[in-house]
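Lab notebook, bench 4. We co-purified these components, and the gel suggests they stay together. Before we commit to crystallization screens, I want a quick structural picture of the whole thing.
Request: model the full complex, all chains together.
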Amino acid sequence: MSLELGPYELRLLTVAGCYALPVLGYQLVFGHAGALSLAQGAFFGLGAYATALLATRWGWGFLATFPASILVPVALAALVAAPVLRLRSHYFALATLGIAQVVLLAAVNWTELTGGANGLAGVPGVVFAGVPVPRGWPMLALVWGLVLAVMLASHLALRGRWSRAFALLRARPLAAAAIGLDEGRMRLAAFLASAACAGAGGALYVHTLRVVSPEALGFPVMVACLAMSVIGGAKHVLGAPLGALLLVHLPEWFRFLDLYRNVAYGAALLAAIVLAPSGIAGALARALPRRAAPAPKPQAPPAPRRPRADEGPLLAIDGLAKSFGGVRALDGVALSLRPGEILGLIGPNGSGKTTLLNLVSGFETPDRGAIRLAGARIDAMPPHAIARSGVGRTFQTPALVEEMSALDAVSLARGKELVAARPEAMHFLAEVGIGAEAAAEKVGRLPFGLRRRVELARALALQPRLLLLDEPASGLTAGEREALGNLLRRLAGQGLGLLVVEHDMPFLLGLAHRVACLDEGRLIALGTPAEVRRAPAVIAAYLGEAA
Amino acid sequence: MTTLLLQLLLNALALGAAYALIALGFVLVLNATSAVNFAQGDMVMAGGYVAIALAAVLPLPGIALLPVVAVLMAALGALLSLLAYFPLIGRPPVAVFISTIALGVMLEGSANAIFGAEPRAAPALVGAGAIELAGIHLPYQRLAIVALASLLILLQHLLFAKTQLGRRLRAVAQDREMARALGIAAAPLIAGTFALGTGLAGAAGLLLANEWFVTPTEGTNYILKAYIAVTIGGWGSVPGAVVGALLVALFEVGVSSALSYSVATALLYAAVLAILFFRPQGIFGEAAQARA
Amino acid sequence: MQRLVLACLLVLFSTAVRAQDVSIPVLVPLTGFLSLEGQSQRNGALLALRNPPPGITPRFEVADTGVSPEIAVNAFEKALGSRPLAVVASMLGTQMLAMMPLAAEAKVPLVTVSGTAKITEMGNPWVFRFFPGDAVVKTAQARYVIEELGKRRPAIVYQTTAYGQSGREHLDAMFRKLGAPPVFEEGIGVDVKDLLPVLAKVSASGADVLALQLHAPSTALLIRQAASMGLGIPIVAGSAIHQPSTAALLEPRELAGICAESAASPISGGSAALEAWIEEYRKEFQSEPDAYALAQYDGTMMVLREAAAGARTPEALARALSSARYEGLAMTYKSDGRGNMAHSAVILCYDGTSRVPQIVKRYDNIDGVL
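Here is the predicted assembly.
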């Protein structure tokens, strides 16, 4: 049956393979890293131009042009990565679109090199070490062989820890940073890999088509890549070949619609994004029953050395100030925290408590002042580095990915492959009182109190020296609060320093060794719970709020 | 020389005024939904064709057709929100970006199938002719574009600043949850914002399609200009969008006069990249929080 | 393997010969920025295919090639399945360049009206161009500017597309050859709206004539803005303005004094046969024909005539097209040995009272092939 394919069918299949490669790359940057890059079409076209130029002008063979076609877009991606990658979604989309437009402009106007709008004709077919690869079945095999190889590589690289790390990055970027994931490096890796895949696809495309023109760099190619990933499925390797096969054939199938062909194409894309948000591959994956990984037996990792109380302050904050717009969120705050100490942080709403935690975590940089962790300045460090140097934290509302199992959420913080991380993660889950059954459950299905505990377990899995907790008791039942208090006391007993923001006064005053009170960004009281409770400034601040 | 400069300035103002209407529609939808409406450029194109189709039935000057075009386009905008926005609530903002790209492809394909690819001209706003003022040639059409765009921008401003409806729209734009808590039904207001934004795009389409013609493929060009204008002006800032649009037009006309069109285009994108790098909040500061 | 291929080809050809009818697919851009010209091309081809000379029944399928080489090649490969005698091929140069190697491999003549110079410079014996290439029309345009208008300081404004860049190259070379090197040249993108900046620069350059090589929208925009600012020097445009739909964008007074090159101007009238053809075209398609439609009609009709005369295989047809001389409605066609069939051009001018131009100058047999 397969032998009945004519040259036309073989060509479409080959072209689909050429598109599957950039789409595989696009899955990394768009599907996994969640960045709407609009430069993938330009990277694809650059790969095509590199091959066409090197082959027609300088007579290079496939073994030289192919790596060059991968390198050229990767080099451009690396060049623009620094300014572009730190931009958030809509700015990133515009910036990458701008880059694509500049590349297109160069291809059209740099006629001496690129042949201008006519492009370059007479590109040879693939010659593999002296053996020509004719079009039809051999070229098809070469293209799809490469597609399968990239699919396999992508699957192996992402199947465990990294697809989950990217999921956390997309959904809760701050939480990702707080467990030491380096967002910048992850996005860079995805961006460069996507450019490499696009270049490879462009090279094979130009060998298939034998000509290249600025159309290969244009926005329609970009839209095609986007449509293929969305319709095929942006997070599953199978989505790339499925999307490419479908969208290369769709315009051909729609030929009977004549002038309305493109309308049908757009409608198909719209229908896919509305009706099948995770694409064909996503729908297939959901249809197939999947066993959740059984929770392994807990295994305690080697305990880190914890500083002793007499080694000096664990956290020292000095003269800290931060403004947003014209509003002083923090103004000259000084604090310190010893190992094994629980320091409570209170204050009315908007007094700067969460800002203080965010500054210590590195989510914000202070305008003035210093933050030291065990004597070393951390206030200029990026958040993931601060996390790795031993600062764990939780958030006011648990920052978890609902579709991920509790076990995997905690495993991510161990910074190693899942197989090795899971038994250790079970240890930390057990520490907060979560058993095997709840650990295997998706976070979204757990009750609120358990989610708080999962997040705490994730922070503990970093094996931090300092733990920052933002309203850990809110939303918990009385029993859960008591258990939480006992757990926190036990952790402090192990030498951990805890900075706890909490509105529940009885809970906090019964727990903390010392309490600091903020009002309008200033520290208005610092002392034992009993002292702070009696401080006139604190009473005034709270009464003022209450009144 | 001065005459030429003034002439160029008027051209830039007319072009900038039309860009401003496009950018304004873009930013209104952005504020109400924090979603990028990538079909906004194609809506401008569609507005041009609606005007042409109307003129075939009602042979009236453009100024009389304008309200009808705006209303028809507003209806199309509401339809757009039903197709490409409401089904995607609760999904990442990128989803709307893509669904509106898809809608743009559909609009472009429809225009090509219905009207053909040849450039078409919408009826003139007012009759042809020009004022000669101190040696400067001021065509009525351009003056009318500037005047009409300013009027529409002013009306939009009054709607938002002075009316109950405008206050509700703003409330929804600022905080949908809060608006809901206050008993404001968000959905019709969001659909209304899409309608308003698309109506403005349609008006721009009519203004542009007489003086500069319309072809099915030019939506992409307009959305890029609007996108850049909104980024330069400060993401989510309404006055910023207007000023940004004028700056883009001035930049284009200025650089292409002094150097060349290709240099102007390349420099425009270089300038956008530089602004994103050094001042990501835009020249006038970001009004919308980075919700997207 | 080779023997197998040979056997396949033999089977293929013998069936083609035995068939009573021949297949001539029409692969032209019907969507995208060149779809106006593509639709003219389709209409011209259809008019010929629906009214073939006696003794031949052509089968034909029309397929859109969009704007990208990829879609054109897909359509071509699919069309090969019908074992075509010849293919009416896209006038988009990049699509021609992509289809040509395949046509050579499959041995199928491509009959086109693409003006892109390069397609007949690749040494491909399967390309037959029935529209004068840039070498012909740009020579006519430049000669008219220098010899008839007596201008010495031309400026060139061209589109940054294949059409514009290829035309600019020939125009520039021809002006230099005629001893009047251009004093100003600039390329503009298809999305440029405000043309006053370039007109101002043309004005400042001291040019005494402006030669255009722009697509329809930019040509119309430029002419309108030139009229509005009072450019004050003559404009000799490329063939885009001769298309009735382009001229329709402008008021007759804005067109006053504008001249342009073209292969022909059907609506300007001519022989009785041409008038009859124009009537037929209007009846069939409810629109005005342009030079592309006429040229594609002539080309397709020549193919049908040669087929009716016995050239029933692609190879026989290619031989016939390479050597025969054909009196078409627009002009006389004969190959120069590289597939350039058309060698004449006209200059037409608008007098400011109507949108129908007058032919003011004919340049027949510019390259001396006939």
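Chain A touches chain B at residues 34, 36, 83-84, 87-91, 93-95, 97-99, 101-102, 105, 109, 170, 219, 223, 226-227, 230, 258-267, 269-270, 273-274, 277 (CB under 8 Å). Worth comparing against the SEC data before the next meeting. Residues 399-463 of chain A form one domain.
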